[in-house]
Specification:
The complex is a heterodimer of chains A (about 150) and B (about 400). Chain A is an alpha+beta fold and about 150 residues long. Chain A is built from 5 helices and 4 strands, in the order ααβββαααβ. Chain B is built from 13 helices and 17 strands. Classes of the chains: A alpha+beta (about 150), B alpha/beta (about 400). The complex binds pyridoxal-5'-phosphate (PLP).
Chain lengths: ~150, ~400
């Protein structure tokens, strides 16, 4: 069972039970919806992007598994207040870590993302962790179609 | 009815090589037969021997291998006829499975009834698999036929009192699943089809989740068409059966065109082969069909009344264990259950549960089970489904329950 404890670390369970920045962000000027048809995860991400390109507020609503919900919650904590370009860079390193493409360590200020590293050993669950991030990117691109893991 | 012979489950288990493996350090406990069944040795050998000895195309060669392949392929029509308890082996059409059968019907029934018109209706139910929804929606787009839905109640039983309202002279087709793959509800097919016959509608039975578990003879279940997938009845993927009444099949136009389904072809016009070959265009999955023959013989020799009784007992066991556990909600309360039990765990998403259960060697399905309208009706994004097969026993049920406890420990 230890490998399951590694996948479902306390921080993941905690964020999935009491997600941060959960609830519709009324002040948002960008939004997107994402879904994972395999397990039925559905997520709405809302962003307030200021004129100088800072993601000053991020909110989400999700009906999703623990990994997806925790990933969305930690995403909002991590990216809030970051410039869009910086957020994209963080997405890249998160993505390459959970898909197992890269084993580079996160810089100290992103250590929280470390809890998702174990996901790379569960291919069917990688998409659960990345869905909120893809959905956020979709919102930033101002694309109208839904983000999907397929 | 006399009690059927009990199954010799340990002997059956030995016939499935795939069961003899460890998953994450645990004995594999396979409770996902509703998605696809494991394959017994006899099926594996049949497929293997096609490629090793009798690998040739069917219906087109005079050489020995082609004659052997053709004979083995055509023999499966007779085996399927025995399996269904019917007489005419030309009523057996080989398809890839239920999905392809439904698409074939949706594309050819119009030719049988002289065309559909705006206002005509096809009746399905709220419990259907997408395979028995989407083909009719496509038909609706091309012909204007309307898709009507017989609802289910909170127990996931069809509301049969609505039949009077929904089955009218506009109803041209009634297509219903025998057993719900998402919940395990066994539907009162006789009542639904007798209402359908009352208005002269065509009746279609999706037997995907009943064929592996019980006798589905059209002699007992009066219907016009019946279909099931080989890969859910212990056969290989890639082959399934569409059975139809001969006089109807004869009147239907072909669906896909190509080789094998023709009698003569010229650039002006082609004439078609007779039933059932006119529905089998192109080179079929020959080995899968031959493997399916072995699978149906496996099920017949195992004895479907015994299979049905054994599995009903396993489902009762699963249900009663789950009912005793706190924080477990069984989804649906069908009066007669077959195939599976669906449930949710309070505060835990089915997908998380499935990952942890797999880590304990227990293979179940988590998701919407290709029944999204039903899940919406139930207000659930997904459920956990444990489905049974001939090789499952009490120790599998115990492993299932233990794995659920492991899930709850992680989320405690
Ligand atoms: C009730 C039911 N109908 C149809 C299907 C579709 O079967 P196939 O994918 O083999 O065509 C399934 C398979 O899950 C099913 O359970």
């Amino acid at each position: 069972m230890s490998s399951m404890r590694e996948l479902y670390q306390e921080m993941i369970i905690d964020h999935s039970r009491s997600p941060r920045n959960h609830g519709k962000l009324q002040s948002a000027n960008l939004e997107a919806r994402g879904n994972n048809p395999l397990c039925g995860d559905e997520i709405d991400m809302q962003v307030l992007r200021s004129e100088d390109g800072v993601l000053s507020e991020i909110g989400f609503e999700a009906t999703a598994c623990a990994i997806c919900t925790a990933s969305a919650s930690i995403l909002t904590e991590t990216l809030k207040g970051k410039a869009e370009n910086e957020a994209r860079g963080i997405f890249e390193s998160f993505h390459s870590t959970v898909t197992g493409e890269s084993s580079a360590a996160y810089p100290p200020e992103l250590m929280k993302l470390e809890v998702f590293t174990g996901v790379k050993d569960y291919p069917s669950r990688v998409k659960c962790a990345t869905l909120p991030w893809h959905t956020l990117m979709q919102a930033l691109e101002e694309k109208s179609e839904e983000a999907s893991t397929e | 009815m006399a009690n059927p012979e009990p199954l010799n489950v340990s002997d059956l288990q030995r016939q499935f090589p795939a069961l003899d493996q460890q998953v994450h350090g645990h004995r594999l406990v396979y409770l996902d037969s509703a998605a696809t069944t494991q394959k017994p040795q006899s099926v594996l050998e049949a497929v293997d021997s096609v490629y090793r000895k009798d690998c040739a195309n069917v219906h087109r060669g005079v050489h020995t291998l082609s004659e052997r392949a053709t004979a083995r392929y055509e023999e499966v029509r007779k085996i399927a006829t025995r399996f269904l308890g019917t007489e005419d082996s030309q009523e057996i059409v080989f398809t890839r499975g239920v999905t392809e059968s439904m698409n074939l019907l949706a594309n050819t029934l119009s030719g049988l009834v002289g065309g559909f018109k705006e206002g005509d209706e096809v009746l399905i139910t709220e419990l259907e698999h997408h395979a028995n929804i989407v083909p009719w929606q496509l038909l609706s787009q091309s012909t204007g036929i309307r898709v009507k839905v017989l609802p289910c109640d909170d127990a996931c039983e069809l509301v049969l009192d609505d039949l009077d309202k929904l089955v009218t002279e506009k109803t041209r087709i009634v297509s219903v699943g025998h057993v719900s793959n998402a919940i395990g509800t066994m539907n009162d097919i006789d009542r639904i089809f007798s209402a359908a016959r009352g208005v002269g509608a065509i009746t279609i039975l999706d037997a995907a989740q009943s064929a592996p578990h019980m006798d589905i003879s059209p002699k007992k279940i009066d219907c016009d068409f019946l279909t099931f997938s080989g890969h859910k009845t212990y056969g290989p993927t890639g082959a399934g059966i569409l059975w139809g009444k001969r006089e109807l099949l004869d009147q239907m136009p072909p669906w896909q065109g190509g080789g094998d389904m023709i009698r003569t072809v010229s650039f002006e016009e082609s004439t078609y082969a007779e039933t059932p070959w006119k529905f089998e265009a192109g080179t079929p999955d020959i080995a899968a069909v031959i493997g399916l023959g072995a699978a149906l013989e496996f099920l017949d020799s195992t004895g479907r009344p015994s299979v049905e009784a054994h599995e009903a007992e396993l489902l009762r066991m699963i249900e009663s264990h789950l009912m005793e556990m706190e924080g477990v909600q069984i989804v649906g309360k069908p009066a007669t259950r077959a195939c599976c039990v669906s449930f949710t765990l309070d505060g835990i998403h089915p997908h998380d549960a499935a990952t942890i259960m797999d880590q304990n060697g227990v293979a179940i399905r988590a998701g919407h089970h290709c029944a999204m309208p039903l899940m919406k009706r139930l207000g659930l994004p997904a459920t956990i489904r444990a489905s049974v097969g001939v090789h499952n026993d009490q120790s599998d049920v115990e492993a299932l329950i233990q794995s659920i406890q492991a899930v709850r420990e992680i989320f405690a």
